[in-house]
């Protein structure tokens, strides 16, 4: 049986993938190796290029194109990027022939319009129904409904399925569910409710090809969803009040349950780790990568509430195969049981 049999949705045709499983554009983690592995296994790959230099974007896009002939998107965050850098990032992508973008956080219609005018697809991740409406009005081709269960930066506070359902009630474009999803049961449930597919972050962070540090991957494997907390203490480099879901560590434990409401202006700037000669500050949004050295335990260890379903580190293709096999079995049982 082909991996896509019984799972293909119109989203697959739009994005050029075989199964409706999207790689989250995790900044630092979703580099070319992981994006290519997901794309070659039939999913949709994304490069996480949040605030990266145009030169690094060029290196990653060239390497990704050499590793796959599948379509992919580049993820940047307009609202969390200095305007001059954002302009250069998008210009570099367009010069390199990038045909799809993923945006997140506040919707910036002018940015959406720029890449749409260049003939590109736009996937926009949102955390509220209002943001979904604004993104669609701006020209987004796909809405990614991110629930509060998600790892990394979390924009809204609704559960993923509830948010997706509310957005689907009014959206005229495909809606993808994201947040705490890591299994075939999650994919089957999303398709059963009428969603176009799912987006996974944590499930792909804990793969051979991800650029996350082995320590981060090991912490995900060892964690359950209950080990994660939503906090805005890791906020340096992002707008004030930007909450993230992380695995609890010494930094969050010291908060004594006061996870939200931190003012970045009052936080000290103390280097605790490094990527080459680049310092990584305590309380920054940086997570430990393959290249990071220092106090990894005190960094932002992003993970969603689906971490409990991740019990080992595997190739990305194996993770996709496991999800699709289980989803097909569940959906087939539903069809046979409905007669």
What's the helix and strand layout?
Elements lengths: L9 H6 L5 E3 L8 H9 L4 E4 L5 H14 L4 E4 L7 H13 L4 E4 L5 H9 L3 E6 L2 H10 L3 E5 L5 E3 L5 H9 L6 E4 L5 H9 L4 E4 L1 H4 L8 H9 L5 E4 L11 E5 L2 H4 L17 E5 L2 E4 L10 E3 L21 H22 L2
Parallel strand pairs: 1-9, 2-3, 3-4, 4-5, 5-6, 6-8, 8-9
Antiparallel strand pairs: 7-11, 10-11, 12-13, 12-14
Helix pairs in contact: 2-3, 3-4, 5-6, 8-12
Report on this structure.
With 339 residues, this protein is α/β, with parallel strands linked by helices. The protein has 2 domains: 10-210 and 312-331, Aldolase class I (TIM Barrel, Alpha-Beta Barrel), CATH 3.20.20.70; 214-307, no CATH class. Helices cover 35% and strands 17% of the residues. Strands 1-9-8-6-5-4-3-2 form an 8-stranded parallel beta sheet. The protein has a 3-stranded antiparallel beta sheet with strand order 7-11-10, with no helix packed on it. A 3-stranded antiparallel beta sheet has the order 13-12-14, with no helix packed on it. A hairpin with a 2-residue loop joins strand 12 (271-275) and strand 13. Helix 2 runs parallel beside helix 3 (54-67), helix 3 (54-67) runs parallel beside helix 4 and helix 8 crosses helix 12. The mean pLDDT is 96.
């Amino acid at each position: 049986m082909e991996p896509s049999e019984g799972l293909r949705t119109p989203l697959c045709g739009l994005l050029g993938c075989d199964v409706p499983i999207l790689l989250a554009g995790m900044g630092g983690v979703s580099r070319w190796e992981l994006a290519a592995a997901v794309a070659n296994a039939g999913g949709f790959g994304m490069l996480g290029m949040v605030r990266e230099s145009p030169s690094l974007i060029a290196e990653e896009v060239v390497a990704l194109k050499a590793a796959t002939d599948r379509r992919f998107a580049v993820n940047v965050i307009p609202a969390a990027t200095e305007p001059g850098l954002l302009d250069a990032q998008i210009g570099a992508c367009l010069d390199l022939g990038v045909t799809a973008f993923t945006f997140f956080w506040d919707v910036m219609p002018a940015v959406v319009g720029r890449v749409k005018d260049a003939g590109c697809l736009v996937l926009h991740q949102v955390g509220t129904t209002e943001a979904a409406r604004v993104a669609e009005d701006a020209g987004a081709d796909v809405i990614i409904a991110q629930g509060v269960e998600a790892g990394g930066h979390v924009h809204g506070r609704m559960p993923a399925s509830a948010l997706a359902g509310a957005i689907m009630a009014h959206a005229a474009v495909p809606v993808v569910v994201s947040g705490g999803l890591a299994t075939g049961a999650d994919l089957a449930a999303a398709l059963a409710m009428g969603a176009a597919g799912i987006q996974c972050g944590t499930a792909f962070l804990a793969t051979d090809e991800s650029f996350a540090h082995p320590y981060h991957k090991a912490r995900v494997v060892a964690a359950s969803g209950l080990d994660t907390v939503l906090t805005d203490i890791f906020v340096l480099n992002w707008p004030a009040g930007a909450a993230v879901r992380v695995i609890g560590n010494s930094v969050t434990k010291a908060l004594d349950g006061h996870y939200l409401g931190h003012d970045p202006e009052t936080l000290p700037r103390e280097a605790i780790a490094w990527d080459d000669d680049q310092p990584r500050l305590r309380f920054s949004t940086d997570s430990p990568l393959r290249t990071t050295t220092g106090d990894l335990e005190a960094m932002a260890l992003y993970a969603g509430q689906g971490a409990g379903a991740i019990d080992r580190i595997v190739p990305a293709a194996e993770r996709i195969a496991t999800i699709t096999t289980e989803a097909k079995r569940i959906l087939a049982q539903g069809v046979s049981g409905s007669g």
